[in-house]
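Morning!

This is the sequence you dropped in the shared folder:
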Amino acid sequence: MTLSLLIPGGLVGAALVVFSIVNFDLERLTLNRIWTGLLASGAALVLGALFAVVVIGFFWVIGLVQWDTDFLHAHYNVPWALAVGGAIYGGPVGAIMGFVIGVAAVVTTSWSGVVVLDAGPEAKGIK
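The structure's back. Tokens below.
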């Protein structure tokens, strides 16, 4: 696996997750809400791609991407090494996906006026 395959797939996957999160409650699902969700997912995808360039670009410049790729290729048959190499990729990719989901939630809430991620009554102290 290379970053040229992982990053686009991760961003598109995050956009699909975001669209699902935004439109998870079918009671309030309208055509306007679907369009807002699609636009918010698209905006989050574009901003996430820019954020990915910054994050992965930083790790590329300091040499971590090449080191990890070489490490994974050299230890392709060692399970603990694959776990370590995958964890090194997992941190930045998780941060990028979290950024995409957060941007989509904020954008959807501001564009539609509907709170997407609500803490619920228990977190608000309501019984």
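Headline: Residues 5 and 11 are 11 Å apart (CA to CA).

More detail when I'm at my desk.
O.
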